[in-house]
Amino acid sequence: MKSTFLALALTLAAACTAQAQDKWVIGQSAPLTGGNAKFGTDIRDGALAWFASVNAKGGVQGRPIELVSLDDKNDRKQAGANTKTLLENKNLLALFGYASATLSLDALPQAVAAEVPFFAPFSGANPVRVNNPVLFTVRASYGEEMDKILGFWVSLGLKRPTVLYYDDEVGKQNVELVVAYLKKVNLQPQSLGVKRNAQLGKPEVQAILAQKPDFIVNTLLSGAAAQVQKELVGTGHMIPTSSLSFVGADQYIAAAGPASSGVSIAQVVPSPSNVSMPAVRECAKALEAAGSKTPMNSTQLEACFAARVLTEGIRRARKPVSARTVLEALTNLGSYDLGGFKVTFAPGAQHGSKYVELAMVTRDGKLTSR
Q1: b/e map of 302-318 (b: 16 or more CB within 10 Å)?
Q2: What secondary structure letter does DSSP report for 23?
Q3: Per-residue pLDDT at 104 exceeds 50
Q4: Fold of the domain built from segment(s) 2-139+275-345
Q5: Closest alpha carbon to 133 in 153, 120, 116, 156
Q6: What whole-number distance in Å separates Cα of residue 282 and Cα of residue 92?
Q7: Residue among 96, 67, 50 at smallest CA distance from 301
Q8: Which end of the chain lies in a sparser environment, N or C, as judged by fewer CB atoms within 10 Å?
Q9: Superfamily for 142-267?
Q10: Is 119 helix (H, G, I), strand (E, B) or coil?
Q11: Which of 230, 169, 181, 183 is nearest to 205 (CA)?
Q12: Is the dihedral angle over the CA atoms 70, 247, 269, 274 positive or is it negative?
């Protein structure tokens, strides 16, 4: 009897191993619960939709792609622990789509040690804009976003910005970006730091009003930014406000409701409604085929774009395909046109896009380009 059980166990183990080896595994740590869950799930779902469309056509290099997403609840330590777990999978080809620079801080060094691509973190902050042999981004930097935002307001003669930021390592670096830009035009910003994941309300708004800003630059997540904006509007104050793409435009509009009207938000991908662009249209079709019942948003589009580029890296990888050969293929990708949106990678130049546009929230809760 024991030998029968042992034989069955060995057969099942062999089947599971064979099944795992028949897939290309991509690992992700993302906030799937908690205050930033909508952002995290949109990243996951945009990527899943593209991978599903690839798998429906037979996969890539003969195997389907499997995205393994672990919940980090928007907590840096948990993201680091999730990364350790993901890297234990010997079939892992890449780490993908971490939702912020903060969530990447403890993950990126592990990717370096394992020589696994750390692909498309959803941030333009300095910690994920360094030259690093395993790091690849498919979006513009926050510096490039700040140039667009501040250039617009300064051109209108506004000179007293207040920067809302998280009082931590990455948040302080975002303030430094604003300071560096404004120094070029002989201006000095004011700022207000808040705790990450804290509830915001009247005390913070009173602190903002005390600074008498001409305009506000927001570098907070959607929930916190929405709390501030609703409180400002509720007190009868309409201060011109712009946000980094980090806020998550659709998540912010949903959280702030009518109070979001008039806020401008930097975008690092084209409008998700611009289906005349082939790159956008293909991602919209993938999401629809995956069962999405709502229009594609910018976060899902960015995730889809990133998944497409990573898939191309796997397609070009030398056999036998491994994390190292995918890393090599991505490094030497060159210019890759998704259909109106280009990403370019080369050795020592692995930040693939500089695309930025500034969009404004309309009264009916839509984004329109300035």
Answers
A1: bbbbbbbbbbbbbebbe
A2: S
A3: yes
A4: Rossmann fold (3.40.50)
A5: 116
A6: 26
A7: 50
A8: N
A9: Response regulator (3.40.50.2300)
A10: strand
A11: 230
A12: positive
Residues β-bridged to residue 27: 68, 95
Query: What is the overall mean pLDDT for the chain?
Result: 90
Q: Per residue in 206-225, pLDDT tens?
A: 999 999 999 999 999 889 99
Question: β-strand 65-71 against 24-30: which pairing, if any?
Answer: parallel
Dihedral angle over CA of 15, 16, 18, 24, nearest 10: 160
pLDDT of residue 15: 38
222-266 pLDDT tens trace? 899 999 999 999 999 889 999 998 888 888 999 999 999 999 999
pTM value surpassing 0.90: no
Burial code (b: 16+ CB inside 10 Å, e: under 16) for 134-158 equals bbbbbbbbbbbbbbbbbebbbeeee
**Six-digit token pair at 142?**
């926050």
CA atoms within 13 A on the CB side of 178: 28
Q: Do domains 2-139+275-345 and 142-267 have the same CATH topology?
A: yes
Phi, psi dihedrals of residue 190, rounded to the nearest 5°: -100, 165
Those residues with Cβ within 8 angstroms of residue 359's Cβ, 6 or more apart along the chain or in another chain: 249, 264, 265, 266, 267, 271, 367, 368, 369, 370
Strands (E), the chain: 24-30, 65-71, 92-96, 118-119, 135-136, 161-166, 190-194, 215-218, 241-243, 264-267, 334-337, 342-345, 357-361, 367-369
